[in-house]
Specification:
eight-stranded mixed beta sheet; two-stranded antiparallel ribbon; 7 helices; alpha/beta
Length: about 250
């Protein structure tokens, strides 16, 4: 991006004040973020849909053009791969803006929130299978109607899976909310996301550093498969693949 300026004295002073206000970086956050790491693929690269390679600059100290708190968070979010949360529950992190969670059931994997687009979700499932066994997906849960929690569903299941009676569980009203937000208001939401997540900024210390929640928005195929079961009350329980889930 041409025409970008160096940070002003006021900006540098503001960044310095933020740095002084932060707790000492004793490495604890990084150790916690790495806890349970099992493995990944180089740069988390998934075709043209996703890659962490453009963020290699985060290995350097924070420049005076970047908020030091955001820089620290960006370095944590640059960690990617398969992590064990607790026995039987794993996450793939750093393959999209959001994380995808796998619960090991009696026969296969229950998928919680399959990312934004199908290609990174498929890569995450392949990584899970590479380390935890080549098992089928036996259920899907959408926790809510934001696209980063369902858009990659076609990367983890297809028509053949649906034909087996595989359940897709979501909160009551999920489909109406998802369609209202991402179809009826799709154009406005897309413009909002462009500004909110800085999608058009170059990946460098003066451009796109991080989104706070995660690194960035994947650019793969967004999909939606309607849920087969709705959860309407706090405290409902459901057994999926031998695992009792309390909602």
């Amino acid at each position: 991006m041409s025409g970008r300026k160096e940070p002003t004295a006021a900006t540098r002073a503001a960044q310095s004040r933020v740095a002084a206000s932060l707790p000492v970086d004793d490495g604890v956050d990084l150790a916690r973020a790495r806890r349970g790491f099992i493995g990944s693929i180089p740069d988390a690269a998934v075709g043209g849909s996703w890659s962490m390679a453009p963020y290699a600059f985060l290995e350097e100290p924070a420049p005076d053009s970047a908020n030091p708190s955001l820089w620290r968070q960006a370095r944590l979010n640059a960690l990617h791969g398969l992590f064990e949360v607790t026995p039987g529950i794993h996450q793939v992190r750093g393959f999209d803006l959001s994380n995808i969670t796998f619960i090991e059931g009696e026969r296969g994997f229950i998928v919680i929130d399959p990312l934004i687009s199908a290609e990174p979700a498929a890569a995450a499932l392949a990584l899970m299978r590479a380390h935890r066994g080549d098992k089928p997906v036996t259920g899907v849960v959408y926790t809510h109607s934001h696209v980063d929690h369902y858009g990659g569903v076609r990367g983890v299941i297809g028509e053949a899976d649906i034909a087996t009676g595989l359940e897709i569980v979501a909160p009551e009203g999920f489909l109406k909310a998802a369609v209202s937000e991402n179809v009826l208001a799709g154009n406005a939401m897309s413009r909002r996301a462009t500004y909110m997540y800085g999608s058009l900024l170059p990946r460098d210390p003066k451009g796109h550093i991080d989104c706070g929640l995660g690194k960035a928005i994947s650019l793969g195929s967004v999909s939606l498969i309607p849920p087969t079961r709705s959860i309407s009350a706090t405290g409902e329980t459901l057994v999926m693949d031998g695992v009792e889930i309390l909602f």
